[in-house]
Design goal:
- The complex is a heterodimer of chains A (219) and B (255).
- With 219 residues, chain A is mainly alpha-helical.
- Chain A is 75% helix and 0% strand.
- Chain A has helices at 2-13, 23-42, 51-83, 90-110, 112-121, 125-157, 160-182, 205-216.
- The longest helix of chain A is centred in the first third of the chain and has 33 residues, at 51-83.
- Chain A is globular.
- The model of chain A has no long low-confidence stretch (mean pLDDT 83).
- The radius of gyration of chain B is 22 Å and the shape is elongated.
- With 255 residues, chain B is an all-alpha fold.
- Helix content of chain B is 73%, strand content 0%.
- In chain B, helix 1 (2-14) packs across helix 3, helix 3 (30-54) packs parallel to helix 6 (121-130) and helix 4 (61-92) runs antiparallel to helix 5 (99-119).
- Classes of the chains: A mainly alpha (219), B mainly alpha (255).
Chain lengths: 219, 255
């Protein structure tokens, strides 16, 4: 436990890159702090009755969203890095990629009390959707800034890392959007039964976007 | 065994030195590379075939098997169709690369392409799992094949150039007993750098042909993704071509 917090602390300070926490403790940070936020987010409908199930489900889903997306993109990113002749730096690259997620999870857990306050004070589901969207956006942007900082030293060493950074963002966002879509519901509308995956949600976010686009254009 | 195979691939991905001269290229073990090409492309084929399993009510596992055969076939057949023309034309223009060296180079580059492709596999699998739209899957796969192809061709161009250059630097060993050829009056001997330029020109043209043959080969071997409304078949009847179909798919996706 103490180790977990000291890892979190070191990640937040992030001044000494060489003393970066090991991969395993970073993964632990992502799992634990992400789960904390997920549990609170999912408890919007209350914990009575079946409500606790949604909390549990969301606690699994939030770390899953980050880490499975990461795992899916990792093989291609590794091969591309090796092809670009950056294999020697991959340890540091991995550290930068992981710290994006760890920081995002930490930021999420930091705003957990606010989410909790909203949870107990409003019954307006749309507001919760909006607030959680904001929380995820803030967490991602913060993680992005930290990752960018770590990448800056890498780019200084070899400018090819700049291209690789863009490739990573492209891949990660492309897969992450779909992953977030597939994993709905995160919050759990209290008027709907608790479920791990929403019925009929098993679709493609991009196709959905195209459909909305067509609808707006009157197609 | 597996470790040894992977070491070969890893060396290819990392090292430019493999392509620095014919000698280093000679160290590449062609049979091992061939095994890796077959294996890695089959892995991608399995991920590709997942769409046919998840997109329909009755899962079509045969499509996974079909893809695991078709993707390797696509690469190997394209290579063997295009290889003779590259060898003949570059040798005609004065390239000194031997038959086996040229083949090794192409095999090495195919390995790079297929490794990139296989590494996209998990993403393809994930989208196959969650997507119902057939045009989307088709275009996603085309995009991944294209990305892998471009990276492979990039490596090929680099390797080819350094090989041809290394050939230029090593002088031809003259048999001491034979007098140097007497220049025939009126016939200008082709200088080395001009010959290299011509070889490179032919090579670029060949890459275009290689890409076209690859696309058409993919078309011959279809279906890869398998539309959820159509029956399983190992092959389809002759009809249209790759490019019109991609164009129509983009249209279908947008309308």
């Amino acid at each position: 436990m103490a180790d977990l917090f000291s890892t979190a602390d070191r990640l937040l300070r992030g001044d000494d890159e060489h003393a970066a926490p090991p991969v395993r403790s970073q993964l632990l940070v992502i799992a634990v702090f992400g789960a904390v936020y997920g549990a609170v987010m999912g408890s919007y409908g209350g914990l009575a009755g079946d409500g606790w199930k949604q909390a549990l489900v969301s606690a699994i889903k939030v770390p899953w969203l980050f880490s499975v997306t990461f795992l899916l993109c990792l093989p291609s990113f590794f091969v591309l890095n090796v092809l670009a002749g950056l294999a020697g730096d991959f340890r540091r690259v991995l550290n930068a990629l992981l710290s994006f997620q760890a920081i995002a999870a930490l930021v999420l857990s930091a705003v957990t009390p606010i989410t909790f306050l909203f949870n107990v004070s409003t019954d307006y589901y749309q507001l919760m959707v909006l607030w959680n969207g904001v929380a995820f956006a803030v967490a991602s942007i913060t993680g992005h800034i930290v990752m960018r900082r770590l990448y800056r030293t890498l780019i200084a060493g070899n400018p090819r890392h700049r291209l690789m950074y863009r490739v990573w963002m492209g891949l990660y966002v492309f897969v992450g959007i779909e992953m977030g879509w597939v994993l709905r519901p995160f919050i759990g509308d209290p008027n709907l039964p608790v479920q791990f995956f929403r019925r009929g949600a098993w679709g493609n976010a991009y196709m959905e976007l195209l459909r909305i686009f067509h609808h707006v254009l009157g197609g | 065994m597996m470790k040894e195979l992977w070491r070969q691939v890893d060396g290819l991905l990392r090292g430019r030195e493999t392509f620095s001269s014919e000698e280093t290229l000679g160290k590449v073990r062609a049979p091992q590379l061939l095994v890796m090409v077959l294996l890695l492309s089959a892995i991608y084929g399995l991920f590709m075939g997942l769409y046919a399993v998840f997109s329909r009510d009755i899962p079509e596992y045969r499509q996974m098997a079909a893809c695991a055969f078709k993707v390797p076939a696509l690469y190997v057949l394209t290579l063997f169709i295009c290889y003779p023309s590259l060898y003949v034309f570059s040798t005609l223009l004065g390239s000194r690369l031997s038959f086996w060296s040229t083949l090794r180079l192409l095999l090495a580059v195919t390995t790079i392409t297929v490794t990139v492709l296989a590494s996209f596999g998990p993403i393809t699998g994930f989208f196959a799992l969650s997507t119902e739209s057939y045009p989307f899957m088709k275009l996603l796969n085309v995009a991944f094949f294209a990305a892998a192809g471009f990276l492979g061709v990039g490596a090929l161009i680099k390797g080819w150039k350094s090989l041809v250059k290394s050939q230029e630097l090593t002088p031809v060993v003259q048999n001491p007993g034979v007098p140097p050829p007497i220049p025939v009056a009126g016939m200008r001997p082709i200088p080395a750098d001009e010959s290299t330029r011509q070889i490179n020109k032919v090579f670029r043209l060949w890459i275009v042909i290689y890409a076209l043959v690859g696309c058409q080969m993919a078309w011959v071997l279809r279906p890869f993704v398998l539309d959820s409304h159509s029956e399983f078949a190992w092959f389809r009847a002759r009809h249209a071509n790759f490019f019109t179909d991609v164009w129509q798919t983009i249209w279908k996706l947008l309308s």
